[in-house]
Amino acid sequence: MAAVPPTAQVPSWMTKEYFVEVVAKKFGLSEDDFTIDALDVKPATEAGDNFASKLYRVAVGVSCKDGSSKKLSLIVKALVNMGMAEEMIQMMNVFPKEKEMYVDIIPALEQLYREKGIYVEFGPKCYKNETRPTDSLVLEDLNDRQFRMVNRREGLDLEHTKVVLKKLAQFHAASAVLFERKGPFSAVFDEGMYNVRSKAIFEAHMRPHMETSVKMVRLWPNGEYYAEIMAVLKLV
What we know:
Residues 137-235 form the CHK kinase-like domain. Pfam families: EcKL. This is CHK kinase-like domain-containing protein. By secondary structure, the chain is α+β, with helices and mostly antiparallel strands. The protein contains six helices and five strands. It folds into two domains: 16-189; 198-233. The protein has helices at 20-27, 84-91, 94-114, 158-182, 199-217, 223-232, and strands at residues 34-43, 54-64, 69-78, 126-130, 136-140. A five-stranded antiparallel β-sheet has the order 1-2-3-5-4, with helices on both faces. The termini are far apart.
């Protein structure tokens, strides 16, 4: 049974059976050559760190027929009971876009560099993706390679900023070459997050936030002036 802190809920579909395919793919084993004897599921982020899904860190313990044992840490990204946010995410095709990126596009971009003898990675490996009973992705846990999330309120230092900009440039260059070779990307990328179809639901979602913002603005020196501008612009 999956162990989990009492404050978090584990989706009923996140069972040992769900991860059999992942373990087989990761270690190159037949599904008959091992059993999963331990599964520990915990939230992978703090509250408020992730907006478009829920993230779980899953520790998997494996016993093999040859007597050996293995351990595997995974990140599961899933669309689980998110109310209005879930409707917004589905309208924006967030998971179809992410699936195509992790499964098709990122490996293709990395392959372009390998053809030139350059080893570049643009993201974690994706071991599994599902649409039933909900949209979910099973990804490599980059903590195992000593990657860490930066505090979003503090930002990056100069050294890491340079690393990110270099990787972004490599990504942009490879995407241009891939477009030249393969043609346009999938139609799921034709629309961004904010579009005509999502306008109404975004307005409903953002209105309470804007109302709170206006109340705060009115507390500023000369705040009434700016609050009235927001009202004229129909931001509330």
